[in-house]
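Re-run with default settings, no changes from the original entry. Doing this only to confirm the output is reproducible before filing.
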Amino acid sequence: MFDWMVWTTPVAIFFTCIAVMLVGMTIWEVRSPTVERKGFLPIATTRGDRLFIGLMCAAWINLA
């Protein structure tokens, strides 16, 4: 089923780290609900929002 994918070690480590971060953030959110706050962005964000924005910024910087 996944024969068309090339699962090299760095790719597997990358996706494993993303999955571990998502599971960790979910557990953290259940144990300690987040409070929205404003930082340097003009919007109120939660921990998950900041993680998502950080991942997207890292992806765009790597593409550049």
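The mean pLDDT is 86. Residues 18 and 24 are 10 Å apart (CA to CA).
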